[in-house]
């Protein structure tokens, strides 16, 4: 069976020419506002409160939980709202040693198309048993675990909890579709809270 990742990229590339998405008017309006003023935003998260795009910010919590130094970035969110959010400048690297593949196609592909479209076969059988990363292998769901990661070039260890999560990848073929799989991996006990506050009219007029 052909791997999803490469095929999805091919489908995405080719389908953009054959299928034109209808852009909601509010999203197009947000794009136009960003073109006219690259610094505009409608809401600010609690880590970029009182800041402007490209300003330095700090997300609370450990690197494992998503915390760390970042940059305020304005981008279009749900419903065409432009959000100013603190985006961490560097990624965390975790070698979970999870197996490749095992993603299952959506219900339409597996049901209506019986797992095959235009001669291309899609996986419709979930992995059994559910694979666990190296930090949760042999441990019960909800059990304690210790993850090893690298952040800003430094190795760190953090306490976590073994949780079952759903991973997903999106692609486009006769509409937007998603492939998913369940895995068990060491997750942070909690993540930093992120809240958004609308900006006032003066901030919206900043050139």
Task: Walk me through the structure.
This protein has a five-stranded mixed β-sheet. It contains four helices and ten strands, in the order H-H-E-E-E-E-H-E-E-E-E-E-E-H. The protein is α+β, with helices and mostly antiparallel strands and 207 residues long. The protein has two domains: 1-23 and 91-192, no CATH class; 37-89, no CATH class.
What is the structure about, briefly put?
The chain has 207 residues and is α+β, with helices and mostly antiparallel strands. The protein has helices at residues 4-18, 25-36, 107-111, 201-204; strands spanning 43-45, 56-59, 68-76, 82-88, 116-117, 120-121, 144-151, 154-172, 176-187, 196-198.
For the CA atoms, what is the radius of gyration?
A: 21 Å
Indicate the proportion of strand residues: 25-35%
Q: How many E-type strands?
A: 10
Count structural domains. Answer: 2
Unreliable runs:
1-20
Shape: flat
What structural class do you assign from the helix and strand content?
A: alpha+beta
> Spatial order of the strands in the main sheet?
2-3-4-1-10
Helix content range: 10-25%
* Separate helix tally: 4
Sheet with most strands: 5 strands, mixed
Order of helices and strands: HHEEEEHEEEEEEH
What is the mean predicted local confidence, pLDDT?
85
